[in-house]
Amino acid sequence: MEQILRDPETGIYLRPMTYEDTDLIVSWRNSDGVRKNFIYQALFTRESHENWIRTMVETGKVVQFIICLEDEPVGSVYIRDIDRIHRKAEYGIFIGEESARGRGVGTVAARLMLDYCFGKEGLHKVFLRVFADNVRACRSYEKAGFVREAYLKEDVCIDGVYRDMILMAVWNPEENEC
Predict the structure, then answer these.
(1) C-alpha 158, offset from chain centre
(2) Per-residue pLDDT for 171 more than 80?
(3) Fewer CB within 10 A of the end CB, N or C, for the chain?
(4) Residue whose C-alpha is closest to residue 14's, from 163, 84, 115
(5) Residue 87 and residue 118: Cα distance in Å, rounded?
(6) What is the pLDDT of residues 126-170, one digit of tens each?
(7) Which candidate, 101, 95, 65, places its Cα nearest to that of 80?
């Protein structure tokens, strides 16, 4: 994963995540502004993130990049549970730096990642799960090309409350053959 994915118009680019990003990732994922939007809400540790790198990233089950805005890291984007047989993966993103939220960074990062998924990884479908009440994220995903596939009523239990989820996906426009 040596490449850097760039959007020259916005100054946003994706670079491969490394072990050196661990403290930043842990800090971002543990912040309330990020953690509240994840199904998995347990606090991250340096050890748990390094284990993620060893068991998921280094084994090819996950591809993860750091989102940079004009050379400053502001978040992370990844695909997980990569299914090479059915050529699909689950997409995830978080904007860790509060100052970068609401500025279109997530939409640009999603488009860059989708180009990577369809071009480099040869995937047919990229899907995501998002809390139904996360309206800003849903709008960003739609701007990047995702469409709603399903509304999952009371799908997950977070802090003793069942939450609705929306399943969204985008398909490779260049190919339709299995």
Answers:
(1) 20
(2) yes
(3) C
(4) 115
(5) 10
(6) 999 999 999 999 999 999 999 999 999 999 999 999 999 999 999
(7) 65
What confidence score (pLDDT) does residue 42 get? 85
Which H/E stretch holds residue 22?
A: helix 22-30
Amino acid code (one letter) for 177: E
Q: What is the band of 178 on the pLDDT scale with cuts at 50, 70, 90?
A: confident
| Residue 178 · residue 172 · CB < 8 Å | no
Q: Higher-confidence residue: 125 or 2?
A: 125
Among 164, 160, 158, 131, CA closest to 40: 158
Nearest to 75 by CA among 121, 50, 107: 107
The full set of domains in the chain, from first to last, is 5-171 (3.40.630.30)
Question: Around Cβ 1, how many Cβ atoms within 10 Å?
Answer: 14
